[in-house]
Automatic annotation (TrEMBL):
Signal peptide: none annotated. Keywords: ATP-binding, Kinase, Membrane, Nucleotide-binding, Phosphoprotein, Transferase, Transmembrane, Transmembrane helix, Two-component regulatory system. This is histidine kinase. The lineage of its organism: Bacteria, Bacillati, Actinomycetota, Actinomycetes, Mycobacteriales. The chain crosses the membrane at residues 7-29, 35-53, 60-76, 104-122, 128-146.
Length: 371
């Protein structure tokens, strides 16, 4: 039930994003090709919403309907809201559908990416072909990899459950609780590792649409797409490994998100003492928290400077970040903020976030000798 509630929330979120793109003039992927009347746009949004809701229980049917909808839209579009809805349908088709459907979706992602790049090459040139290929990676391969990671997690959970049936009831209950926690941890990791990069790609794609000749933005879109794929690969390797020794989340992992924020017109200043050292587990937690902080600042206050400071206070590590409030003030009830607080608490620390004196502040304190 929780999974369906989450999928419904995602479908409604895509619908609202579509309304937002409509309102700001970003409906069509191709600049100056907004040919739909308002009634047709509204009908397309409701059709995409219905298909996303159908994908929760009938993923194969929903995927087929979405392909038909996109094919019909191609003549007058392509429409960006429909392609964003496609990412959710791909994720549900791969994560909840059959293995055969997963293969079909994989071939579809390949054909869309390569075909779109070749079509752009023939009509618009090399730069447009590269841009189309990167968008294809972001809109099809990213949700495809995310869905496969979730399938791998479910297979691992099923294998653990089958192996534990012969053991005592108490041990079986303990293992089930551990598996549940592992699934929540993986969900947080996938959200924090991949969603930030995918959000950066979406924001930068909007910037590139306004300024098609900006090579720097295009290069940052490419690096953000590759970073998202690398994060997914690392997470999948962790799923199939024997332990957590493969974790390599370091502060250097933030470079891609910082570049994306700067390409969107903002700036990120990260200050830390040269002699500041911390255990790998704490550095991983701090990196994930700062990744969410940078993503939120880029999304809600694009173009505003973000100031981040890491310092030692007594036996603890203090992280403070602030940026001027943008036009979209976060309410503090999103999954990202909850994940930040949970990660800090997992290291016996605390995390707070909120608006004060015209700025958005994030403060984290973690003992350097946390368990």
């Amino acid at each position: 039930m929780e999974a369906f509630d989450s999928a419904t929330s995602a479908a409604v979120g895509v619908f609202l994003v579509g309304l937002l793109l409509w309102g700001v003039g970003g409906w069509s992927i191709v600049v100056d090709r907004d040919l739909y009347p308002p009634a047709a746009k509204l009908a397309l949004l409701f059709a995409a919403l219905a298909i996303q809701l159908t994908a929760q229980r009938r993923p194969a049917l929903a995927f087929g309907l979405m392909i038909v909808l996109l094919a019909g839209d191609f003549v007058y579009g392509p429409s960006l809201p429909l392609w964003i809805a496609l990412t959710d349908v791909i994720f549900l088709a791969v994560s909840t559908g059959s293995a055969r459907l997963s293969v079909v979706v994989g071939w579809f992602a390949f054909l869309v990416t390569v075909g779109g790049a070749l079509l752009a090459l023939a009509l618009l040139g090399v730069r447009a072909a590269l841009y189309a290929g990167l968008i294809g990676v972001a809109l099809t391969w990213s949700p495809l990899g995310y869905g496969r990671a979730v399938r791998a997690s479910r297979r691992m959970v099923d294998a653990e459950r089958d192996a534990g049936r012969a053991e005592l009831a108490a041990r079986d209950a303990e293992r089930s609780a551990a598996i549940g926690e592992e699934r929540r941890r993986l969900a947080r990791d996938l959200h924090d590792a991949v969603a930030g990069h995918v959000s950066a790609v979406a924001i930068l794609a909007e910037v590139a649409q306004r300024d098609p000749g900006n090579i720097g933005v295009l290069q940052t879109i490419r690096s953000s797409s590759l970073a998202a794929m690398e994060e997914m690969r690392t997470t999948i390797e962790l799923l199939t490994g024997p332990d957590d020794s493969a974790v390599t989340t370091r502060l250097a992992s933030l470079d891609g998100l910082i570049e994306a924020a700067e390409a969107a017109g903002g700036s990120v200043t990260l200050r830390r003492p040269d002699d500041l050292s911390m255990p790998l587990a704490i550095e991983a937690v701090v990196t994930r928290i700062l990744g969410e902080t940078i993503t939120n600042a880029t999304k809600h206050a694009p173009g505003a400077p973000l100031d981040i400071e890491l310092r030692r206070e007594g036996a603890g590590l203090v992280v403070e970040a602030s940026n001027p409030l943008g036009s979209e003030v976060a309410t503090g009830h999103g999954n990202g903020l909850r994940n930040m607080m949970f990660r800090a608490e997992s290291m016996d620390g605390t995390a707070t976030a909120g608006a004060r004196d015209g700025r958005w502040h994030v403060r984290v304190r973690i003992p350097l000798e946390a368990r």
